[in-house]
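Assemble and predict.
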Amino acid sequence: GQNIDQPTEMTATEGAIVQINCTYQTSGFNGLFWYQQHAGEAPTFLSYNVLDGLEEKGRFSSFLSRSKGYSYLLLKELQMKDSASYLCAVLDSNYQLIWGAGTKLIIKP
Amino acid sequence: GAVVSQHPSWVICKSGTSVKIECRSLDFQATTMFWYRQFPKQSLMLMATSNEGSKATYEQGVEKDKFLINHASLTLSTLTVTSAHPEDSSFYICSARFGGDNYEQYFGPGTRLTVT
């Protein structure tokens, strides 16, 4: 079966750094996406990794290790508006997106 | 670029009636559109995938006669919830994909359906 695991919930402090992990076991791999979803809103694209390594985009970075079936999303200089759910999704061998359950990130002042 | 709209943004209907939700790609042609459902505090659940001009592919457990999907053009897909029941109340989100080597999905703002 196909499986994507992420922590259900994480709490961090404003101004700090937080790392959200995602591990996957899928039939094939054609890339991994991270999306942000605020409550009651649709997901918005954050990053796409298909090769190993770190992709940096402003305060957000995403890392991928295909051999380990592992990715993380790193958020720096946390702001209150970063409180949201973060969804990890893997593009499998059929180019279907397999979604994780999401990690709810709570930012405290 | 890559804007997807949905209409309506929210709808309340009575049990037994049908509701149509529209999903439009405003500034690009979407070869594939996806329909998701999301219950409170849960993740996205893919309902079906539709390609322009062909029948939608439904995920296991999704009743195709209840959730009618029409992808009539490269910019429009519709989801009709037929004979709605209170348990159909949910947040319905569509997304669209360019096609080719671009697999990113662009999401619409979602439609909140409440069936009374």
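Chain A touches chain B through 19 residues (CB under 8 Å).
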